[in-house]
Design goal:
alpha/beta; 44% helix
Amino acid sequence: MRSIRRSNLDVPARTIPEFIAYAKVNPGKISMGSGGIGSSPHVAGELFKMMTGVDMVHIPYRGVAPATADLLGGRIQVLFDTLPAAIQNIRAGKIRGLAVTSKKRSDALPDVPAMNEFVPGYEADSFHGISAPNGTPREIVDKLNKEINAVLADPKLKARLAELGSEVLIGTPEDYGRYLKGEIERWAKVIEFSGAKAE
């Protein structure tokens, strides 16, 4: 699932380079909302801070909905969010989508650039996966994997998810395990950088 970095319309920046320049002349004055400490919007924003050297103040909310309300109301300036949650407000012109945080542009918003076009190496995808308890018999894991992959391959489902800016990835349990391992290692560095602690 692609994520997007969006700003309220009062922020003068219309591109990522403009936003970086704006943030650097206004250190500590930009409020970056998130759905809570350690949420995907939070760590995506911390990765941006880590890679660009900008100083934004993290404002954690109890979920992304109140953060979005405050973004729309001008009480925070920026929010990293999932594309499905943000796309309707962007299409309606209520907020400005500056970049998607996936490796490439989204077909759902082709005019919105990918962050790594300006911040090389930046990538922050949100994802949903299905896991089973440790020790689940392999034949059950394989059956679940086969059935879930079949559902996700349905053209109607894929088309609807694509319309919302999501991408379907199917694979084996081993593929998913490798992906999770890589994500845990990558985001542990960002959490350490941010100094975030579990509440």
